[in-house]
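Teaching assistant here, posting this on the class forum so everyone can see the example we discussed in section. The complex has four components, and the goal was to see what a joint structure prediction looks like when all of them are supplied at once.
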Amino acid sequence: MFFASDNSGPVHPEVLEALTEANMGYAMGYGADAQMEAVRHRLRDIFEAPEAAIYLVATGTAANSLALATLSQPFQTIFCSPVAHIHEDECNAPEFYTGGAKLTLVPGGDKMSAEALRQSIAGEEVRGVHGPQRGPVSITQVTERGSVYTTDELSALCAVAKDYDLPVHLDGARFTNALVSLKCSPADMTWKAGIDVVSFGGTKNGLMGVEAVIFFDPKHAWEFELRRKRGAHLFSKHRYLSAQMLAYLRDDLWLSSAQAANDSCAFLADGLQAAGATLEMPQANMVFAALPRATHQRLLDAGAVYHLWDGPLNGPEDEMVTARFVCDWSISRDEITAFLNLL
Amino acid sequence: MFFASDNSGPVHPEVLEALTEANMGYAMGYGADAQMEAVRHRLRDIFEAPEAAIYLVATGTAANSLALATLSQPFQTIFCSPVAHIHEDECNAPEFYTGGAKLTLVPGGDKMSAEALRQSIAGEEVRGVHGPQRGPVSITQVTERGSVYTTDELSALCAVAKDYDLPVHLDGARFTNALVSLKCSPADMTWKAGIDVVSFGGTKNGLMGVEAVIFFDPKHAWEFELRRKRGAHLFSKHRYLSAQMLAYLRDDLWLSSAQAANDSCAFLADGLQAAGATLEMPQANMVFAALPRATHQRLLDAGAVYHLWDGPLNGPEDEMVTARFVCDWSISRDEITAFLNLL
Amino acid sequence: MFFASDNSGPVHPEVLEALTEANMGYAMGYGADAQMEAVRHRLRDIFEAPEAAIYLVATGTAANSLALATLSQPFQTIFCSPVAHIHEDECNAPEFYTGGAKLTLVPGGDKMSAEALRQSIAGEEVRGVHGPQRGPVSITQVTERGSVYTTDELSALCAVAKDYDLPVHLDGARFTNALVSLKCSPADMTWKAGIDVVSFGGTKNGLMGVEAVIFFDPKHAWEFELRRKRGAHLFSKHRYLSAQMLAYLRDDLWLSSAQAANDSCAFLADGLQAAGATLEMPQANMVFAALPRATHQRLLDAGAVYHLWDGPLNGPEDEMVTARFVCDWSISRDEITAFLNLL
Amino acid sequence: MFFASDNSGPVHPEVLEALTEANMGYAMGYGADAQMEAVRHRLRDIFEAPEAAIYLVATGTAANSLALATLSQPFQTIFCSPVAHIHEDECNAPEFYTGGAKLTLVPGGDKMSAEALRQSIAGEEVRGVHGPQRGPVSITQVTERGSVYTTDELSALCAVAKDYDLPVHLDGARFTNALVSLKCSPADMTWKAGIDVVSFGGTKNGLMGVEAVIFFDPKHAWEFELRRKRGAHLFSKHRYLSAQMLAYLRDDLWLSSAQAANDSCAFLADGLQAAGATLEMPQANMVFAALPRATHQRLLDAGAVYHLWDGPLNGPEDEMVTARFVCDWSISRDEITAFLNLL
């Protein structure tokens, strides 16, 4: 009954097998391994982007921070949602990697609207050399609150950015959960909508610790490599990152794992709703559901693991408190059913 | 016949097995896994340092840069050898992580002498606010040229640093190769000699990508945690780092692997010398041997892999050219013998 | 009819004279001049702070950025108003000098309320190593909208900061305008209220380009000196900064200049109001007044210089548009009267 | 008898007068003053560079650090002399402003030779993404040891840089002292030799605190403006910087002041030599002369002010100790004669 995070579950067995297969003899280090060449080809095919520059790192924070540092200058500001992971949960890593750029929080909820983005960008107009300069836009897909931008919404945001000649980054820590939710192609959800760079997450979807960074225009490729090395994120035994990503992309493991997580979350949400919880039906693998405090207390005491979101555990017993429930690829129907039965 | 680097070999099978064992169910992320608790206990025992603060990262560059950033201020200078990895091979990662500290290169060879270190430190005295301020001393053990500092030499260097109240960092990417060479205890080679912080390498000795950073005085512990997170080096699925390190420390795998590498290198060096190469007998798992250029050409053409060190492959055929040969834990006597036969 | 800014007016003649007086023979550079010793004594007396560490720099941005960098760590966040100069008008200088700290904007207007500050600080509680850590609070006095915090308000803000053990910085670019408005002592407005460090402005009040940074607790003194040098803000011919500050503090020139500016602004505001403008009476030397767009057009065409604040110059003629009017020490009643006559 | 530094002397009276003249009414701030427009025209004429982008800052460290930050990337290394001011005397300001670039010290003395520079640049070739990347070359003219590069020497260094497509910066803190020594044109000593950016010093030659940064190719202009603002080096009351520089360039004051300083130094050197000192005749306004320690003791006791360079004041009385003597524009023959009489 573990719904605390999709980065606490196990690695998919096929990924572990791939590590064992990769563990033969010597291999060139630092990204010059043969598996990385295969990763590049596979991702270029999947994204219909034959020119894309593609790199692997081991954490999502590294993927986001290095991508943004490559796209921005230290005297610029990055536009993002007030609840963006890059703002709230990376201990100033973007500020560190960019050399001191700012983050401008576009007013609104977890999803930025094109209009709010336009106003925020326009608002940086008046100060000339005194204000920070406009820098990249960073969009989180799936958002930190479980929403999924439609391709039309992504296109509208990118169009605003393009009006100001700003590059767009997609934080896709849960890229595939959004993709299978939208039932569109990777190209549709990225460069066809106007995205320039993607953090293509794997860790939350069954890998041990691998994320790809994809630049659709390779002009920044060498700079990214230098920033990755300087950031201490270039692995000597790089083949073990490549092998994970290859296994992920083989036989649609990435898609089936994300589909499984999303389906589990829908099943869970149905059950929660049936049990009286207040919620919006999940778009991906995360649901926010309000239950009476006493119910939370009982569930947590019984061994369920998840985070309360808008209130502490102590307080009036019948007050509704929202909690976040996340399903990963590995959770079984039995486990969810056990939880719902408890509920 | 692969002697190019000890970070290109395979992962030890016991380490891979440990990953599979660790791959059960859910685990708290970000270093709160149970395995990490075991790692901490084990390393504190091994180092006879019950108070030590211990962290894992995935690359040696991260271990060194984060350790040095925690020990220094951006207006200071770090004292190291002119051939130190932190100076030559990390694309300014120490400068990045420290926020712009300088590296002062202590004149001499790969091993710093206490006298040269003292002169370098003293030399920063005269400039007051204008010069960089004195910061930590960083010692590489095994050095980049294969030498091993004796514990007396380490003590002498640390004594100089202590005279100026400067902390000392040990870059131990090949810590265990030095340890088994010296036949001393980990405590002897570190805090008993005066070392404050160690980068305790695992990747070059059979791990997939794990290094420990050990602070003998835990006062910097929380700052290090923040710097690690901000540097994007805190792993969500941290248990897979812990599991590697636990396997490494179990049944003396770390010691036997390093011994195997050193023994292989001694065997190789004997053979090279017998074949007419000019060399100094290796102290750890690395030997620099001079052979005629034509011989290198023949060996490389036949499939041997290693780096020429002081000259290009084209030039007078009978000129002696030095090459670097590194043995990792996995290389077999058969393979070395095949190479020597070729020679 | 120049009301655009108080940093565009002339230098007070007594200050220029002091430069001429200081221009005799040789003087020790880099802050070791005799005048600086006098500045230190004078400011310690004025602030009733015999232990204070005191430094001079040439720009307000330098004073603020260096002070905040000395008080904070790169993994922290600085709490300030959404319209703070350090956020809006310094092109990421605080982010640069702190090595990538964040600025947390306390919701509300130009003046932070103690309650809003407490909520913002408390809000950074939950994320552990993932969120930025709590850093200094920075208060702007006079605010960017012309308000003046009372000493009670300052004390309340500082009390919140102290509850969380956070240091407090006062951006006093218009320190003296606030002081003469409050009719309190410099000590009352600073350390007695709980302020730890002050940027004590001179440039906007008749100096050529000098601000003092005052640390009431001198523990950070040497670090500040190193940061100032490293930031390229240590002047070789420092005596000319000292001489300006000395002249400023002699014969209460600082107080009379600020009083003159405030009085001019009150006179202007009276006239604006009499002419039908909508405004709040100024607390210091800045007034925001709404007039019909057509009136602005006429005044600006006639040579008045000031900034429109909440709308462009083109638009409906009778729409009310707010403008900012700032008075410096030098503006004459005649000039203001000429402007009011025009109006 | 003050020979300690050329930045401790007074400001030229004509410069002070210019400040008084500039002190009339209001002026646009932040570099938009009319005087700055005149400075730009004048310097473009003087340098025969009609396209040059020109900026003023108040310290030499700011000029150098901002220029180098604009020319380099944080993953690069800057090539300079081991005794360069940017390495020894700026408390890591270049490292700070560049975001953590490295400085590579070209072996040799105060003057870099083209051959040594070529070897240093070539030496950074082999490490690919692991080593720092090649960045700008920075040349100090006059050097920190008083030497002056000929235009041929400058051209040879720039030719090496151009072979590797690297930009060249000239640290001209004593630009005019070198210029009048070489009797060449400013264009000859800069862009005609291949220099891309100049720190054109004024402070050491009679200004209060102004240096110009001149980019012969204006492509970096806007970036420099942003870096200057972000570095807190953009002055609100900028006209007072402009006025100083205008006075400096008017009626050849810059040239006559430098000539006076150089002539004084030659006169001093003659006298020192006649009195038995060992020295090389100065090329600009600085001479290094060895005298017996007892003589130094006597001179310093009698009130002469200068720095011993290669030894402390205590030691064998008859040992020769080198001292540095610097003459500024203001020193009189009488004062030098008094010193020589004492000697």
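For the discussion questions: The first strand of chain A starts at residue 53 and ends at 57. Chain A touches chain B through 49 residues (CB under 8 Å). Think about how each of these relates to the inputs above.
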